[in-house]
Amino acid sequence: MEVDHEGCKTPRRRESRIPAALACPPAPRKKPVFSKERSPPKDGYFQPPDLEALFMIAPRREACA
Question: 43: left (phi > 0), else alpha (psi -120 to 50), else beta?
């Protein structure tokens, strides 16, 4: 069975062409953020009793040989 490839061509009409690229839309604008000044909590900030103990470096244990 023979296939005739000479009959196939790329369409050349104006309707078949890829349209020209349009200009990109502008980037979206950031919405303004309104922040109001907060007052400190009525009961004060949380004060953990042993904060330094959390950040203490534990002594290294040497491996037995």
Answer: alpha
What's the residue count for the chain?
65
Cα separation, 16 vs 9, whole angstroms: 12
Distance, in Å, from the CA atom of 65 to the CA atom of 62, rounded to the nearest integer, reads: 9
**What's the pTM value of the predicted model, to 2 decimals?**
0.23
Which amino acid type is present at position 20?
A: A
Q: What is the DSSP string of 1-65?
A: -----TT-----SGGGSPPPPPPPPPPPPPPPPP-PPPPPPTT-----TTHHHHTPPPPPPPPP-
- Structure tokens of 4? 């005739």
Q: Which structure tokens are listed for 60?
A: 């290294």
Which tens digits make up the pLDDT trace of 17-37?
Answer: 888 878 888 999 988 877 778
